[in-house]
Each structure stands twice: as structure tokens, then as C-alpha cells.
Amino acid sequence: MSDVDDLCTRPATELAALVRDREVSARELMDAHLDRIERLNPELNAIVTLDAEGARAAADAADARLAAGGPVGPLHGLPVAHKDTHATGGMRTTWGSPLHAETVPARDELVVARLRAAGAIRVGKTNVPEFAAGSHTFNTLFGATHNPYRHGLTAGGSSGGAAAALAAGLVPIAEGSDMGGSLRNPAAFCNVVGLRPTPGRVPTHPAAIGWSQLSVQGPMGRTVADVALGLSALAGPDPRVPISLSDPGAPFAAPLPTELTGLRVAWAPDLGGQVPVDPAITAVLMEQLGVFRDLGATVEEDCPDLAGADEAFGVLRAWLFEASFGDLVREHPDQVKETIRWNAARGAALTGADVGRAEVAHTALFERVVAFFERYDVLLAPTTQVLPFPVEQEYPTEVAGVPQDDYLGWMRSCTLISATGCPALSVPGGFTPDGLPVGLQVIGAPRADRRVLEVGHAFEQATGFGRRRPEL
């Protein structure tokens, strides 16, 4: 491995320290990553918009600021790529849709602005499924993103371009969003780390429905500490966001523990019989339970009662799709993919009573989950129910021999958890015998984001699965 490649696969925490201590310049770091993007991205298709000239100029400005002794943020000089559903001022943002092929927003949305304020340098945009719908990254504008561990297989989605870029060393840190698994699924498929924070931990602005808690934004990285560093920059209140939590972000970057003495762990291999899971995934994760015991935890097989989670997620998602895309679908039915049309149509057919019943179920689910976490500190489960599948396949129609009703069925290991309001971390959980990554989902009580980072970090340090990089 060349020195340049070594630099591009080191943790973001290390790279930030190297730049801050002036052992590596931001320009050197940027040039190394741009060189790697030029060599590897054509095959991966992870980054779909690139501004190399602007990134180099921003890196030079970052070095000048550091040399002048000016204050710098925690991500100073780190290259970052933004999800192509997140508005970037002055840079094309397509939402993976031909309807926005030439759209250039006037300003950054909040998640982009916060990374910029922390010192990160924008290099470009990462690929997404159309309007971030579905957990396989492909669209008619840019095509499919390939998995760095196996060309021809999906990188997951909807933050699939971000996960692939991280795994391949194209950027050291990234961000995404997650309604039904879009930060977790691609992290699992690409052997990186993705955090779905507690709703409101990372405020989303602008948002059409600011009160909704179904979709969140959050950080991705190659290590849990990198994700914690990203969260430290992204978290914190915003007065324009009605659900934003008041806690500041900076404390999330504090050092993470490497032992779990006294931790009470619940293990739910199929979420209490709710989801079918490919036996190859279960086999890999079952082998890891001893790691938690060795780290000082107790492990029991148990799961909260997730009754009503499907109704809450399905109804509220459909309602959001109608609110967000209903008019678009009606005006341009031939330019919106079928799954979005289907989901918006489901939303249009809902009654007020349907939404009311879903919110009642949602509330009862939350109360049961809070009671469950009085007995346990974390819940472990598979992140995904399937292994990465061929890019030509839009979505799996069966899981472990069980037919799936729609394009969301194979993602229920994540969608059921989204409905609970709990923070959930996908951390590398091992590999199948033929080398495909498997993700472990670490779920905490609502607002216990720091706890899931602590548990994920200790597991990561004990196993080292995340250090196994793809052969590119």
C-alpha cells in the first residue's frame, strides 16, 4: 500500500489530529483523496458530483487559517462528501431524480452547514436511490453504486454512495439520512459504521414536516470514534426545529471505553420472531456474543414487544411520501420510479383515522420500549436480513425463503427499530466465509446515543472487523 493510500484509509480522528498538529497539510490530505477518487470511483460510482478545484482551494485556505493561528473546528481539513439528497449551496443536488438533474441550491441545508462550520471540506456528492427511497443505491441519472467488497453487488442505501466512499477510502467521514435503515443498511453492506441518532439529536432543516420523527440525519465513518466525532459536529439544538434536543454535540467526541463491565445486553436474532433472517447472517453474529461476555457484559436472548411497529412505520411513511412527493407524482408520473408512486398512493388513500390509529400504536410502542430498557442497557440484532445482492435486482422479493410483500419488506430489521424512536448503530459484525460483510445493530434506549457508541466501540476494538479493508 502506498503512503497516499495509507493516509486515505486511516481513521478520521487520526487525520484530524495530523492536520491540527501540522504533520500533514489539508492540501496534502485533499490531494491524496482526490487521487484515490480519480483511480477508484469510476468502478464504484460512489461520488457522482466532484469539485476538485474548489476542494483544493478550500484546503489551501484551511492551511492558511491554521498557519495564522486562527481557531479551527474538530473536522478541520477533512474531506467530506455529502449525500445527494442534502442541499449544497452552489453545488448540484439531484436527489437522484431526472427532475433535478440541473438543480443547484442557493444555500447549504443544516447538516451540510454544520460540517462546514466544523472545518470539513466539501469534495462532492454521494450517490443515492431516487429521492432516497429504498435501500439499494441506483437511479436513472447516474446508475448503480457498487459494493467495494464485491463489484456487482449493491452497496445498500439510501446512503449507499456514502458507505461505499468511506469503505474505499475516498473520504474519511460522511453523512446520510435514515428513515427505514438508510444509514444502517449501507454501513452493514460496506463494513463501515452508521448511526441512526435519536430523532432530534441532529436537527433537520429545512424539513417539510418538522414535527415528524421518522426520518433522521446522522454521521457515517470507518470507526465508531469517527462517527462520534461526526456526531459532535452535527448534534445540538436549532431553534427552527421543533423536535431538536437541547444537548450540545461536543461531548460525543469524548474518549470511548473498551470494556463493558456490568452491561446488560439483550440479543434478538430475529427481533422476537418478527423478521426472517438469512441463516448466513445469524451464523456470523451468533459467534460474536462471546465477545460481549468477554468484555464484562451479561447476554440474554430477549426482545421488546414490537407490536404496532409495522403499522406505525408503514402508515407514517406513506403519509410523509404523499406530503413530500404526492404532487410530484401526479405532475410527472413517468419520471418518478414505481416504488415512490406506490408509496405516495398509499399515503393518498389514508384517512385521518388511519393516521390517528398509527400514532396511538406508535405511542404505546414507545412506552413498551422504554420499559424494556429499564431491564437492559442495549439490544443487539442483525442490521440487515439479507447479504448484499446483485445491483441489477431492485430489491429482494424473499428473505430466507419467505416472500416479501413490497419493496420495504426486506428492511424490517431496521424499519421496526425506526418506529421505536431508539438510537441504533450499525457496526461491522464479521464476514461470511466467502468474504461478504455482516452488520451488527446496537440499539439503545431513546436518547441514549452515547451508550450505543460506547458499546459499538468496545466491540469494534475487541474484534477488529472494521480494519479489514476491501481489496481494490
Automatic annotation (TrEMBL):
<dbReference type="InterPro" id="IPR023631">
    <property type="entry name" value="Amidase_dom"/>
</dbReference>
<feature type="domain" description="Amidase">
    <location>
        <begin position="28"/>
        <end position="453"/>
    </location>
</feature>
<dbReference type="InterPro" id="IPR036928">
    <property type="entry name" value="AS_sf"/>
</dbReference>
<dbReference type="InterPro" id="IPR000120">
    <property type="entry name" value="Amidase"/>
</dbReference>
<dbReference type="Pfam" id="PF01425">
    <property type="entry name" value="Amidase"/>
</dbReference>
<protein>
    <submittedName>
        <fullName>Amidase</fullName>
    </submittedName>
</protein>
<dbReference type="GO" id="GO:0003824">
    <property type="term" value="F:catalytic activity"/>
</dbReference>
<dbReference type="InterPro" id="IPR020556">
    <property type="entry name" value="Amidase_CS"/>
</dbReference>
